[in-house]
Amino acid sequence: MRSGTRGRRMLRLLGLVAVGALVAGCAPQVGPDDWTLEPIPFQSAVGRTDFAFGMQGLAADGSGGFWARSGETLLHVGVDGETLAMPRSEDDDLLAGGGTIAVLSGTDLVVTRNERAPVLSVIDTTTMTVRDLPREPAVSNDDFGDFAFGDIAVHDGDAIVVRYQPRSTGYLDYQLLRVDLDDGARTLLYSAPLSLDDAPDTFPGVPPVDLDVDAEGRIYLATPSARIVLDAEGSELSAHEQAADHPRVAVGPDGTALWWGGEPEESNVRGVTVGGSSEAREAIARRESCAKAEVFRTDALSLSDGEAQHPLPFLCGANAAVWTGDSWVVAIGGEGDGVLVRLTPPDARD
């Protein structure tokens, strides 16, 4: 399906679900130790909704809001939940080919694009003009150049990006690069092997490697087989084994991180859904179970705080997550049952 067709289809889906009013049930009781899960409504092309197409990429905007991406559609939501922008380009291929996003400034996003060839680009969201950074071509059987890009983050004006390199049969290397967003100069920070068998549910795509960066520049990597923390120069600070099909990580400024991967564990933590439409609340409730009968992605959620891992019994199988303001925003669901959820820990509530 062409990217423009998919984009128009998404907008029609947003319109179809927006015609229902957002309704709230009886107000739940939130205890002092409870996490809250709040569906985030936004203004679509034809109405306001909190239950639509699943977003596949999220990035904090630096002002308490966030950007979301699904296919070639971008959405900017402010700190108060107001929809600030939903920019569209006349070029249907501008954001084609999937990819990830990170925020460079109030108007500029860094994106990975993979339509014709993998490329890193800076997009001005006010004009929807694009500036491509220089590519690295393949130079030998040991250096395939920009074979494929994975996740991306921005810290101190530079991009931190995952790049894949083919190796022996059944294996890749994933590399962590620091990229100067002015001239495209690259620095290799870290590299490790990745087995194509590590995440069989993602085949024939490459096994995903998710990343995030905290306020001190520490880099958090979630791979199908490990949870890794690096310092700002790429030296390993910690590594823990895991088994994940769709690993995800989202870190707060102090290094407290959410991780998705592996089987659910027993937990005494309680999450309470507040507000939202009945459809959004139902989608959230389904992800209290990590059973394949309930959700497509089954990786369980846990939190690390520098001392231990704490299982959290909600939001299995997230598409993406990001810390912004004083909470996380988590994207769940797919075509027709996507929800953006504001996930607030008890110590962040007033």
Secondary structure layout:
Elements: H1 3-18, E1 35-39, E2 42-43, E3 48-49, E4 57-60, E5 66-70, E6 73-77, E7 83-85, E8 101-103, E9 108-113, E10 119-124, E11 129-132, E12 148-155, E13 158-166, E14 171-180, E15 186-195, E16 210-213, E17 219-222, E18 226-230, E19 236-241, E20 248-251, E21 257-260, E22 271-273, H2 278-286, E23 301-304, E24 309-312, E25 320-324, E26 327-332, E27 339-344
Parallel strand pairs: 1-22
Antiparallel strand pairs: 1-27, 2-3, 4-5, 5-6, 6-7, 8-9, 9-10, 10-11, 12-13, 13-14, 14-15, 16-17, 17-18, 18-19, 20-21, 21-23, 23-24, 25-26, 26-27
Could you explain how this protein is built, in words?
This protein is mainly beta and 350 residues long. Helix content is 7%, strand content 39%. It has 2 helices and 27 strands. The protein has a 5-stranded mixed beta sheet. It has a 4-stranded antiparallel beta sheet with strand order 4-5-6-7, with no helix packed on it. The protein is globular and about 60 Å long.
Low-confidence stretches: 1-25
Strands in their spatial order, largest beta sheet? 22-1-27-26-25
Q: Could you estimate the helical fraction of the residues in percent?
A: under 10%
Total number of strands: 27
Order of helices and strands: HEEEEEEEEEEEEEEEEEEEEEEHEEEEE
The first-to-last residue Cα distance is: 47 Å
pLDDT averaged over residues: 86
- Described by the principal axes of the CA atoms, the overall outline is globular
* Class from secondary-structure proportions: mainly beta
Counting H and I runs of at least 4 residues, what is the number of helices?
A: 2
Q: Strand share of the residues?
A: 35-45%
C-alpha Rg, in Å? 19 Å
Largest sheet: 5 strands, mixed
